[in-house]
Q: What sequence folds into this?
């Protein structure tokens, strides 16, 4: 083959790779070999199953990251619904840390069962509300992490000064930093969300969280958690962060006429006011995450969703306020909304209240063809 | 001589745990977190990351130093939401704060 022939083959191979759709579980494009290697090693930690001998518990929701984020691949969604609790009194939110909140673990190790006779954490007695929380996909979370704070705050309109019925306000972590992760947007960064997930979900301490959670506010009985803290090291934590950070947003299904019409209807009836289709990332230590378009379909802000959906408060979020859920990989989902109560996209739209009421009502008033188009569009994401 | 050696060894063994305990009490504990509540003679800090929140309760004394970005202050300067660094020590009565530095007041 001539030199020109080889060059042509290389160019065609590159074009073919670039045009190939990103599948669920794929890494973002443009990674170096070293980054791809770390992504693969991080997936191993993500899929690792913990046991009491390797640090699991004493309280936990799951035995592995990949047990809840598994469908259709590692990083996907899960059918588990966990329990959160908090107290909202006089407009003040208490996450009930002293009583084991805000996450109430649903499993206990055999040693804890034997010591206390419990098989899950008791609900904090001071809780004024409980919440169910489904396991969402974590695709694209590295891209969401790389969106500049200013870009998120630019869409905030806490007093609805533009009069469109949509407010949108930021949540903030206890130290004042802008939150964006979690159904109530409490957590500022992806690394922190992941570092917190190890102890909260699996009872695995790590260099960022070196102490086990209490048992409903009471100390862990002696001998129940013999492994020294931290139970995983910084390398394992970094690898997990690297895997989650580099998970790409799957390419939407090809849009035909119906999906294109649905995309237009999505904007026309006001869904896009909160589910903002596009953001751009800012700077990032990972070149492939830098200055990238992100099809987030979220503004990462809190909105009042009405009394029917209201559950717990968290940070500045009142019981009825939720972060706009990013619409990522919807076509693989069988459960929708923060607690998985909806089984179809139509049902999820139907359950929107509060600031989502007007868009919901416009959806219901659409001609059947436009409603079908909108649903087809959602199912293409 | 052998007897004295044994006595010395036994003394050392018997005193060692107390020595360790005393040393542990003197070990400085440094916490960084957000003030959750300020009560009479105590401050609660939220530490931890993500949803893995931890509450650290520390006693304050009249001698507890408080520093702010603009200089020294009193305990009344502490407000929920302040981001602080607390230098503490463990005592038999619990954690005691010797110095609390407000790194960033509540915004």
A:
């Amino acid at each position: 083959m001539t030199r020109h022939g080889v060059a042509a083959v290389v160019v065609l191979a590159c074009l073919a790779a670039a045009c190939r759709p990103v599948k669920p579980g794929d890494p973002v494009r443009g990674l170096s070999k070293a980054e791809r290697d770390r992504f693969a090693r991080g997936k191993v930690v993500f899929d690792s199953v913990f046991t009491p001998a390797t640090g699991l518990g004493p309280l936990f929701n799951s035995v592995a990251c990949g047990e809840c984020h598994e469908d259709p691949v590692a990083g996907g969604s899960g059918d588990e619904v966990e329990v959160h609790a908090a107290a909202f009194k006089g407009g003040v939110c208490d996450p009930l840390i002293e009583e084991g909140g805000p996450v109430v673990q649903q499993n206990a190790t055999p040693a804890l069962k034997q010591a206390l006779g419990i098989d899950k954490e008791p609900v904090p007695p001071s809780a004024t509300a409980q919440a169910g929380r489904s396991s969402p996909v974590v695709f694209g979370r590295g891209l969401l992490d790389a969106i500049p704070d200013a870009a998120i705050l630019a869409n905030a309109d806490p007093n609805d000064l533009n009069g469109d019925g949509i407010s949108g306000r930021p949540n903030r972590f206890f130290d004042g930093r802008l939150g964006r992760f979690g159904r109530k947007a409490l957590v500022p960064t992806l690394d922190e969300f992941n570092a917190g997930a190890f102890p909260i979900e699996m009872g695995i301490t790590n260099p960022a969280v070196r102490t086990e959670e209490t048992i409903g506010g009471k100390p862990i009985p002696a001998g129940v958690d013999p492994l020294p803290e931290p139970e995983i090291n910084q390398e394992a934590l970094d690898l997990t962060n690297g895997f989650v950070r580099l998970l790409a947003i799957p390419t939407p299904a090809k849009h035909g006429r119906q999906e294109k019409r649905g995309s237009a209807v999505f904007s026309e009836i006001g869904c896009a006011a909160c589910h903002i289709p596009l953001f751009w990332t800012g700077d990032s230590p990972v070149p492939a995450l830098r200055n990238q378009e992100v099809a987030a379909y979220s503004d990462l802000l809190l909105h009042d969703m009405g009394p029917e959906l209201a559950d717990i408060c968290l940070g500045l979020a009142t019981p009825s306020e939720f972060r706009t859920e990013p619409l990522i990989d919807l076509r693989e989902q069988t459960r929708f909304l923060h607690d998985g109560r909806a089984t179809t996209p139509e049902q999820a739209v139907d359950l929107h209240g509060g600031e989502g009421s007007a868009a919901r009502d416009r959806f219901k008033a659409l001609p059947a063809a436009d409603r079908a188009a909108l649903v087809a569009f959602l199912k293409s994401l | 001589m052998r007897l004295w050696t044994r006595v010395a060894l036994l003394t050392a063994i018997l005193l060692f745990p107390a020595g360790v305990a005393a040393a542990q009490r003197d070990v400085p504990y440094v916490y960084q977190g957000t003030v959750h509540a300020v009560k009479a003679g105590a401050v609660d800090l939220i530490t931890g990351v993500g949803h893995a929140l931890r509450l650290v309760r520390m006693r304050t004394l009249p001698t507890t130093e408080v520093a702010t970005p603009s200089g020294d202050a009193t305990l009344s300067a502490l407000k929920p939401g302040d981001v602080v660094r607390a230098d503490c020590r463990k005592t038999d009565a619990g954690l005691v704060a010797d110095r609390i530095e407000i790194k960033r007041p509540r915004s």
Observations:
- DSSP finds one helix and six strands in chain B.
- Chain B touches chain A through 17 residues (CB under 8 Å).
